[in-house]
Amino acid sequence: MITVEQARALLFDLVGPLAVEEVPLSRANGRVLAREVTAQRDQPPFDASSMDGYAIKTTEAQKDSMFRVIGESAAGHGFAGTVKAGEAVRIFTGAPMPQGADFVVIQEDVSRNGDLITISDDPGTNPNVRAAGGDFRAGTAMSAPRRLRPQDIALLASMNVARVPVTRKPVIALISTGDELVMPGEEPGPDQIIASNTFGLRAMLEEAGAEPRVLPIARDSHASLETAFDLARGADMIVTIGGASVGDHDLVGEAAGNLGLKRSFYKIAMRPGKPLMAGRMGDAAMVGLPGNPVSAIVCGYLFLVPMVHAMLGLGAHTPALLTARVKGDLGANGPREHYMRAVVKDGVATVFDNQDSAMLGVLAVANALVVRPPNDPALADGAEISYLPI
Amino acid sequence: MITVEQARALLFDLVGPLAVEEVPLSRANGRVLAREVTAQRDQPPFDASSMDGYAIKTTEAQKDSMFRVIGESAAGHGFAGTVKAGEAVRIFTGAPMPQGADFVVIQEDVSRNGDLITISDDPGTNPNVRAAGGDFRAGTAMSAPRRLRPQDIALLASMNVARVPVTRKPVIALISTGDELVMPGEEPGPDQIIASNTFGLRAMLEEAGAEPRVLPIARDSHASLETAFDLARGADMIVTIGGASVGDHDLVGEAAGNLGLKRSFYKIAMRPGKPLMAGRMGDAAMVGLPGNPVSAIVCGYLFLVPMVHAMLGLGAHTPALLTARVKGDLGANGPREHYMRAVVKDGVATVFDNQDSAMLGVLAVANALVVRPPNDPALADGAEISYLPI
């Protein structure tokens, strides 16, 4: 058996960044920018007023000065002429500064009488002008890779980047295996249960940025598994759930082996989680998850999501852990790294007593997996622990 | 002018939870569960083995006991008969316990010879049986409201809830206003800029769980604004961006007023952000955001996202703030609540020097808005500050 960290390193070896595709800006949020893009123009594209007021020359920006208003500059409609000594242009926030003017007296500091204005209060020294290119210049780059957020989308729009190069979403085939499984909405027989992992993992992978495809449930036979693997062709990753060791036979491993699986590893020293196997199968990475619902979901967070991130070009990273203080005592951990369901609130982690890997109910009320290293000694109330938020 | 908190309270008055709709489980992740749902069955539906081994009677679970193997119980295929004294059934993880058996000797503790097995090691006292209903019972409820996560989806599947009652997504019409705006991909005139807020807010609202609809840009005329408001009919919320005060005229306010806007408030004492107006307009809530890119996005996080959450039935909540230590000194704050762009890393907040509300570039590299209360005194390096992660 190998450690969680060793397993993740081997899993990262199975995948790499996918190709780049272009999407319209309206579909780019949450996608991963695949390569640097550059602004198509300066922003602002011209010196712009940052206030409503009157554009004049700085040299004349003094209390009691008088000006003749010769025109108006509004957002979208600049003033075509030039401002000379003793002249002012009515100007609004965001509007282009007229030629010859480099100062905006705010309207609150001005009294107006027809076409004449007088600066009635000290106009100060702030010119209230946003310089052309002050936000960014044409050619300014947005660096990649990065997961695009709403504010990045706004900036890309502002840069006039209408089509965005992003990493293609990894296609992940999900194959649940087992004679005992039926799909939600079906009527299970007395010995059957509902396939729950497929749906949980599908949601998780979609959230992570992948394009999951749920395949028909594979039954516990070579023929059925081979059909499923066949349907998975074209996927970037194939994930089987359950059946990694079905009693006396490792049916999934055998079927995958027959189809050319180059096995990278088989078991990981972790709870919940083993068995888990992985390797290359043709052009795809193949990961075999345990069938216990909690094990499958925990392995999803620990291994599949980081693999998706790697395929999206975000790099091969260990999921970031946070720290909290444990509530109550925790017994010593055994030789396997243990991911314990817990609720973290206000920096305090309450670990559930029942860590049975079949208990989905406990997982659904948890918001954290507290990480216990192998052979971690017993912890007293208040001890610092690391956890993965889920 | 009113405070941010007063504004949010008034905004919450404009919206309420929307109707319930049913979606298939495969589309339910990230949606808000609108009402309690209950498990359709026990899980496990039967006493199930938690290990691979042999099912026997507890009374006979002793080292050196011998048994005749009378059949097999696998996942999906239970054993139909009854286990009597001196008998064992080969059993696999997750398989139903046969009648008469209540203990599973793990296979590692057994030596087998044809149909006969002998317990070769101390089998311990753990029966390795998961009791029927141990995870949940038929009728066990998943409480609402809650934003469904992957582990909730897995649990719902396991409960055999194939269609999920969720709150309808609020439809939000986005109207950018201004003669100076063109859409990304268009060729702007010399006095024009690209409409960036629409795209940023669209991404933000979609992420928050709404269904944003981008309407054509409204020009700075009553006719154009009325056309846009007309196109917005049927939306749960109408958001205008920019033009809340265009020079001498409050065109958006006037046009909205002509169409029946019942104004709730007009300005908020915050930076960046004012002017911002809000009210009811027919069946819809109406919010007018400032046109400065940063102001619009910040107002989106502070006001629109909480309003979406309220419409989704998650309650009327102030966005949750985190705390960090400020790096370097920060000057005293003025009379308006200030949301300062910053980068928070390892608990330390580095606040950008340039807080100009037109600087999208600064927003796109920020991951936090540090909150300065009105008249907050100057802060020394290391002082604790609150921030909103973005």
Automatic annotation (TrEMBL), chains A, B:
- The MoaB/Mog domain extends over 173-310
The EC designation for this entry is 2.10.1.1
Q: Which UniProt keywords apply?
A: Magnesium, Metal-binding, Molybdenum, Molybdenum cofactor biosynthesis, Transferase
Q: Which family does it belong to?
A: Belongs to the MoeA family.
Q: Which CDD domains match?
A: MoeA
Lineage here is: Bacteria, Pseudomonadati, Pseudomonadota, Alphaproteobacteria, Rhodobacterales
Q: What does this protein do?
A: Catalyzes the insertion of molybdate into adenylated molybdopterin with the concomitant release of AMP.
Q: Which reaction does it catalyse?
A: adenylyl-molybdopterin + molybdate = Mo-molybdopterin + AMP + H(+)
Identify this protein by name.
Answer: Molybdopterin molybdenumtransferase
Q: Native species of this protein? A: Seohaeicola nanhaiensis
Which cofactor does the UniProt annotation name? Answer: Mg(2+)
| Coiled-coil annotated spans | none
Metabolic or biological pathway: Cofactor biosynthesis; molybdopterin biosynthesis
